[in-house]
Write a structure and sequence with these properties.
Elements lengths: L1 E4 L1 E2 L4 E9 L14 H30 L1 H13 L3 H14 L3 H17 L4 H22 L12 E5 L4 H6 L5 E6 L7 H8 L4 E3 L11 E5 L4 E4 L3 H24 L13 E6 L5 H6 L4 E6 L1 H5 L7 H14 L4 E5 L27 H6 L1 H14 L4 E6 L5 H20 L7 E7 L2 H5 L1 H5 L4 E4 L1 H9 L17 H16 L3 E4 L10 H7 L3 E4 L1 H13 L9
Parallel strand pairs: 3-4, 4-5, 5-6, 9-10, 9-16, 10-11, 11-12, 12-13, 13-14, 14-15, 15-16
Antiparallel strand pairs: 1-8, 2-6, 3-7, 7-8
Helix pairs in contact: 1-2, 1-3, 1-5, 3-4, 4-5, 11-13, 13-14
This protein binds phosphoenolpyruvate (PEP) and magnesium ion.
C-alpha cells in the first residue's frame, strides 16, 4: 500500500480505480501563409464559437451548481471580449506573421504568466482561467472537441490540473473523485468540486504507475491510499456506506422547509471552524452558516494571517455558499484557544481573562485587518459579522465604530463591499441582562450557550471533573435563553442559538416555543434537527 497526501477539497471518501488523464497538447504551427487580417478573422470566428460553447456550459453549471457558481463561465465569456487580450492577439499576428492558433495560445501563456506573478492571490488564481479560454479558442481553430476524460467505467480521475470547464463537463455518473498535482483549494475548480460534492484532493504528487490501480481518497484525512490493505479498505467502505446512508436521509429531506406541523418556520444553519467544512454544510443542506469560528484560521497559522489571506478564505466560503448567509464571528482567541505569536500572558483565570473582543478592542490593528477582510468578502455574497464575549453597550459601539473606520478605508481604496448585518454573541450573563439595550445596537443575537452555561453556573467548561455539575438544562440557563429571545424580539432583532445546546433535540420544542428564529449546529446535526422540527406541533399543549 502507498499513501500520498494532498489538500482535501471535500470531506468524503471515494473508492475506485485511478485513471490518469493526460491532456493532448494541441499542435499549433507558428507561421502563417495568410495575411494578419485573414488570421484575425479566423481567430474572431473561433472566439465567437468559444463564447457559444461557454454559454452552453453556463446553462449546464446553472442546473448543477447554481447561479453564483456558474458565473465563472460568464466571466470566461467576458474575458474573451477583453480589449487587452484581443490587442495582444492582434499584436502577435501582425508582428510575427503567426497563425491564429499560435497567437491565441501564446497570448494565453503570456497573460497566465503575468497573472501568476501578481501579489493578489485572487488574481494569481485567474492564470488558470485565461489559459482555459485560450485553449478553448485553439481547440475550435483546430477542430478538436473537448477530450473525453472519463473511461467507460467509474474511476477516480487523476490529472496535472483541471480547468473549471473540464470539471463541469466531467460525466458525474462515472466520476468517483479526482486528484490533481496542481490547483489551489481557492480555485473555481475546487469550488465547483465542493459544490458538486465530489471528494477531491489537490497538490498530490502522483506517479504514472498508479494508472488503473485501486485507490481510496480519504478526504477527511487529506490523503489517498493506493492499493489499500484489506482492513483499511473495509474500514473505508464502511465509512463510505455511512456517508451514503446520511446522503439518503438528506435526499429525502433536502429542500424541504424547516417548518413545524402548525406552520412555524425556523432557520437551520451550520457551525464551521474552517473553510474546508463548507462541503459538509452544502452536503447537509444548511440554509446558511450561523457561526464561522474565524479564530481557527489564526490557530492554524504561525503568524498573524494577513488581510489578503483572510479575504481569500472568507471569500471562498461566501462564494461557495452562493448567496446564503455566512455569519463570521470575529476573532475569539484567548482562554482555551491560544496562539503563541499573540504573546498573551499566562493568566490565573483565562476564561475570565484577556480574550475575544477584549483583545480586538485593545489591539486594534489585528481587529481592523480582520474586519477589512470580512468587508471585502461581503462583495461576493451575504455576510454578517458577529462580535463575541460582549458584556456592555460600550463594547458594541466601539466595535461598530472600528468597523465603520474600516469601511471608510476600503471605500477610499475603491474596494467593492456589500451590506453587512451586525450581531453579537450573547454568551455572558451581563449580555443577557442588558439584552434590551444591546438589541438597540445590532440586528441579531446568537446565543453562545457553551459559554453562557459556564458563566451562569460558574463552572469551567474545560474541567472534566465538573461535568456532572455542568447542567446545560439548568433552569437559570433556560431562563436566560428565553429572556434574550424575548428582549431581542421586542427591539426587532432576530435571535438564534449557536452553542451546542442548539443541537440538543430534547430542547428543540422548548426553544421553538420560546420563539427562537434560528438554530446553528454542526453540519451532521442538521438533518436530524430538521426531522424533529418537521414533526413538532406547537399548537398543541406542551408535554412538559
Ligand atoms: C459558545 O460559547 O456557545 C459558542 C458558540 O462559542 P465557543 O464554543 O466557540 O466559545
Ligand atoms: Mg463562546
Amino acid at each position: 500500500m502507498q499513501v500520498a497526501t494532498g489538500k482535501s477539497i471535500l470531506n468524503g471518501i471515494a473508492i475506485g480505480p485511478l485513471r490518469i488523464y493526460k491532456k493532448a497538447e494541441a499542435q499549433t504551427t507558428v507561421s502563417s501563409t495568410l495575411t494578419p487580417e485573414e488570421e484575425y478573422a479566423r481567430f474572431d470566428a473561433a472566439r465567437v464559437k468559444a463564447q457559444e460553447q461557454l454559454g452552453v456550459l453556463y446553462d449546464k453549471a446553472l442546473d448543477e451548481v447554481g447561479e453564483d457558481n456558474a458565473a465563472i463561465f460568464e466571466i470566461h465569456q467576458m474575458m474573451l471580449d477583453d480589449d487587452d487580450y484581443l490587442d495582444a492577439v492582434r499584436g502577435i499576428l501582425e508582428t510575427q506573421g503567426a497563425t491564429a492558433e499560435y497567437a491565441a495560445s501564446a497570448t494565453g501563456e503570456n497573460f497566465a504568466a503575468a497573472f501568476a506573478a501578481m501579489e493578489d492571490e485572487y488574481m494569481r488564481a485567474r492564470a488558470a482561467d485565461v489559459k482555459d479560454i485560450s485553449r478553448r479558442v485553439v481547440n475550435v481553430l483546430l477542430g478538436v472537441g473537448d477530450a473525453d476524460m472519463m473511461a467507460d467505467q467509474p474511476a477516480i480521475l487523476v490529472a496535472d490540473d483541471l480547468t473549471p470547464s473540464e470539471t463541469v463537463q466531467l460525466d458525474k455518473t462515472k466520476l468517483l473523485g479526482f486528484i490533481t498535482r496542481h490547483g489551489s483549494s481557492n480555485s473555481h475548480t475546487a469550488i465547483l468540486a465542493r459544490t458538486m460534492n465530489i471528494p477531491a484532493l489537490v497538490g498530490v504528487d502522483f506517479q504514472d504507475e498508479w494508472d488503473g490501480k485501486l485507490a481510496v481518497i480519504d478526504g477527511y484525512n487529506h490523503c489517498v491510499y493506493i492499493e489499500p490493505a484489506p482492513e483499511l479498505l473495509s474500514a473505508m467502505e464502511e465509512k463510505r456506506s455511512n456517508d451514503l446512508k446520511q446522503e439518503a436521509l438528506l435526499q429525502s429531506l433536502k429542500k424541504k422547509p424547516n417548518i413545524t406541523l402548525d406552520g412555524k418556520e425556523i432557520k437551520v444553519y451550520a457551525n464551521i471552524g474552517n473553510a474546508g467544512d463548507v462541503g459538509l454544510v452544502l452536503q447537509n443542506d444548511a440554509q446558511g452558516i450561523g457561526l464561522f469560528r474565524s479564530e481557527f484560521l489564526y490557530l492554524d497559522s504561525q503568524d498573524y494571517p494577513s488581510e489578503d489571506q483572510q479575504f481569500m478564505l472568507y471569500k471562498r466560503v461566501v462564494e461557495t455558499m452562493a448567496g446564503k448567509k455566512v455569519i463570521i464571528r470575529t476573532l475569539d482567541i484567548g482562554a482555551d484557544k491560544q496562539a503563541d505569536y499573540f504573546g498573551l500572558d499566562k493568566e490565573e483565570n483565562p476564561a475570565l481573562g484577556y480574550r475575544a473582543i477584549r483583545i480586538c478592542l485593545t489591539r486594534k490593528e489585528i481587529f481592523k485587518t480582520q474586519l477589512r477582510a470580512i468587508l471585502r468578502a461581503s462583495a461576493f455574497g451575504t455576510v454578517s459579522v458577529m462580535f463575541p464575549m460582549i458584556i456592555s453597550v460600550r463594547e458594541v459601539r466601539d466595535a461598530k465604530e472600528i468597523l465603520e473606520e474600516c469601511r471608510a478605508e476600503l471605500e477610499e481604496r475603491g474596494v467593492a463591499m456589500g451590506n453587512v448585518e451586525i450581531g453579537i454573541m450573547v454568551e455572558t450573563p451581563a449580555a443577557v441582562l442588558l439584552a434590551d439595550e444591546l438589541a438597540e445596537e445590532v440586528e441579531f443575537f446568537s446565543l453562545g450557550t457553551n459559554d453562557l452555561t459556564q458563566y451562569t453556573l460558574a463552572i469551567d467548561r474545560q474541567n472534566p471533573k465538573l461535568d456532572n455539575f455542568y447542567d446545560s438544562h439548568h433552569p437559570a440557563v433556560l431562563r436566560m435563553i428565553r429572556h434574550t429571545i424575548e428582549a431581542g424580539h421586542r427591539h426587532g432583532c432576530w435571535v438564534g442559538i449557536c452553542g451546542e445546546l442548539g443541537a440538543d433535540q430534547t430542547l428543540t420544542e422548548t426553544f421553538l416555543r420560546y420563539g427562537v428564529d434560528e438554530l446553528s449546529v454542526s453540519p451532521s446535526s442538521i438533518l436530524p434537527l430538521r426531522k424533529i422540527i418537521r414533526s413538532l406541533d406547537l399548537s398543541k399543549e406542551s408535554q412538559d
